[in-house]
Design brief:
The chain has three domains: 63 residues; 89 residues, no CATH class; 50 residues, no CATH class. The protein is mainly alpha-helical. The chain is built from twelve helices and no strands. Keywords: Nucleus, Repeat, rRNA processing.
Length: 231
């Protein structure tokens, strides 16, 4: 039955009408099978892992034009194989093809953060945190060059907000927003709200400066509506 199922999956993923869903179903099947094997025969684990790995590699080979394929593959290595280095290699290779993929940049940043989060040994390791920040800063620079979308920059800024060790990256994002998107009222409002929420600084002028600039760009009616909404 296992061989028959695998042959059917192989037929699908190698067919003319192959799709990402076919690969996902194949990988899911192998993951379920792997769990069953784990409960029965520990010695078979290596062989079964190799089979799933081959399915992932075939997925990349046949559907590399789809950014989601690279994200799915990277997530599999990170979560199912617990191999963060392999996951990062996959997502970075995907970014060489899809330089403007928000999905892959977000995945890459999350993977870098996961190297610190939940790792008791590294959570207090300032050098390890600094290295992760430098890597994320590199991603941010690529994002600014290849995408330069103010909404996406704010999305990344919000993602990093809960990681106190990423202050340098957050400051870089704020600098890029002010340099390249200072004519957009929602950028100033977002930054003002961020300062207000976090209370990260006692420098009230900074928060007021953001609000003043926002008020210069927004209409009176819109300003009142947003201020009432945000309190």
């Amino acid at each position: 039955l296992i061989l028959k199922a695998r042959k059917e999956f192989e037929y699908k993923i190698n067919g003319v009408s192959k799709s990402l869903e076919d690969f996902k179903e194949y990988i899911l099947y192998e993951k379920i099978l792997l769990k069953q094997v784990y409960s029965r025969r520990d010695k078979s684990m290596i062989s079964e892992r190799k089979t799933t790995s081959v399915a992932v590699q075939n997925m990349i080979k046949n559907c590399s034009q789809n950014p989601e394929v690279w994200q799915v593959a990277a997530a599999w290595y990170a979560n199912d194989r617990n191999d963060l280095n392999a996951a990062l290699k996959i997502v970075n290779k995907g970014l060489t093809i899809h330089k403007n993929s928000k999905l892959l940049y977000t995945e890459a940043i999350k993977l870098e953060l996961s190297a610190i989060k939940g790792n008791n040994r590294l959570e207090d390791d300032e050098e390890a945190q600094r290295k992760v920040c430098k890597k994320i800063e590199t991603y941010v620079l690529f994002i600014c060059d290849c995408i330069n979308d103010s909404n996406y920059l704010i999305e990344i800024l919000n993602l990093l907000a809960t990681y106190s060790f990423t202050t340098s990256v957050q400051n870089l994002l704020i600098d890029k927003l002010l340099q390249n998107h200072s004519d957009m009222e929602f950028v100033w409002h977002t930054l003002a709200q961020r300062e207000k929420r976090e209370e990260a600084s006692n420098d009230k002028y900074l928060t007021e400066r953001y609000y003043i600039k926002w008020l210069e760009l927004v209409t009176d009616e819109e300003a009142l509506r947003i201020l009432e909404r945000d309190g």
